Records
---
Amino acid sequence: MIRHRRKLIYLLGFMGSGKSTVGTLLATALGWPLIDLDTVIEAGQGLSIREIFENSGEAFFRQIERAALAEASKAEPAVIALGGGTFAQPANVDLIQAAGGTTVWLDCPPEILRTRCEGLENRPLFRDVQAFTQLFAERLPYYRLADYRVSTEGRTPEEVVESILSLRFF
Ligand code: S3P
């Protein structure tokens, strides 16, 4: 399907999939700004993601995440690195699809994601292996709605950026 796309790329995927790292490199390669949603949220609240979850809970986090997403989606051009849960909220999927950008899912097997997330302090939703596995399974159907899927397994962030650029959708 050919349709007009805004110069707006959303990177999505589970925590640990490399959205921020790939986003930084992709934005540099394109000469576009990077909007890292978690960073925007932390700056807006003056708190870390972990502190926001601890102080105010996940429902509040999802509210401010949605507001940050709506604001970020006005930008063009931009690479937007989403949080792991952003694209797993139906209202956010609608907002992103209506924004007219392109969605790219950084896909990675859960075993690899798990080893990357273990020991990281700023991931409040990484509690234990069982919860992680369940969350991953719940989110897959949403991630599969992305316009493009790029595998990150065994590949450097630079190689992932090359794959995205070779899709030539903009
Ligand atoms: C979350 C992932 C985090 C952050 C928050 C919630 C999630 O982002 O937005 O902790 O629901 O999976 P990363 O995917 O960048 O870790």
Note: The chain has a mean pLDDT of 93.
---
Amino acid sequence: MEAEKDVLILAIESSCDETAAAVVKNGREVLSNVISSQIALHTLYGGVVPEIASRKHIEKINDVIQEALKKAMVSLGDLDAVGVTYGPGLVGALLVGVAEAKAISYAAGLPLIGVHHIEGHISANYIEHKELEPPFVCLVVSGGHTHLVVVKDYGVYEIIGKTRDDAAGEAFDKVARAIGLGYPGGPKIDKVSKEGNPDAIHFPRAKVEDSPYDFSFSGVKSAVLNHINGCRMKGETIVQADIAASFQKAVCEVLVSHALEAVRAYQIPKLALAGGVASNSELRFMMKEACRKEGIPLYYPSPVLCTDNAAMIGAAAYFEYRRGVRHGLDLNAVPNLKLGER
Ligand code: KG4
Ligand code: ZN
């Protein structure tokens, strides 16, 4: 029997504040993964400034792509397709990647595959876990999304739970700002929590009435703000590490309990984590413990593949390519694209 031909995909990601390009072989092998982060720039403003993000993407994107091709030791002629994030995200930022991908697709005569950013995050799990195949349950926790998703097949998703207000990463970022840790908040809370007592303050673990898989993080965020105000009024010192650790525990407990509830109820005994918050060390630890107790295999990507990158977009693009998905040169950025929409 003839061996299946390798599929090489150049992937581009520019939905927020990372300009990224990667070359991925057969969806699971990363030949290069180049990320140019704008974090230092946005730190000056305490968060991502969309206009600045778009301008920086334009400045960086050609170099990032050149470097990705060089590191992978391939030229455009070796590629089988170009994959690009076309939503959701900041529209100006997305447009840079989409326009670039269309130009390369046209100039090199390559098929174009638009990828949903969250599908990318989920697909990051396929890279380091060669044996992982759908169906599985995936907890997607990023700066913009908190979703519980049943991955029924490659590219086939059912969202069973969502946040009603803030995303988990957004809550980390807001709480970090409130306690003076600055941007980006998630990694800073993760770090400072290691010196704090997670049981020092009891913050609420919100349940959403009648929706066992939905989330709400605005309550815990308000509770942190109230605690800080209370301390100030009473002239008590604000113990940053204790607040961070207690907040982190409250959020992680809810994420773990909802995810395991979904695994049990849907009888799909396989759980994956995805998105920037999936690199949180406490979440990984608590989830590992909970899954070990119940005998559920747990998957999560390395931290560099949890936060925004293009390798995950290349992985997702490959499975879409295999399903026959192709986009035309009229592909546009869709800032509020829904998972599963085309
Ligand atoms: O997936 P991502 O890179 O971008 C989006 O698609 O949003 O996620 C970024 C989010 C930010 O809110 C950031 O604070 C959070 O992920 N994050 C973390 C950690 N690393 C990144 N949150 C908690 N702990 C971390 N170690
Ligand atoms: Zn992301």
Note: The radius of gyration is 20 Å.
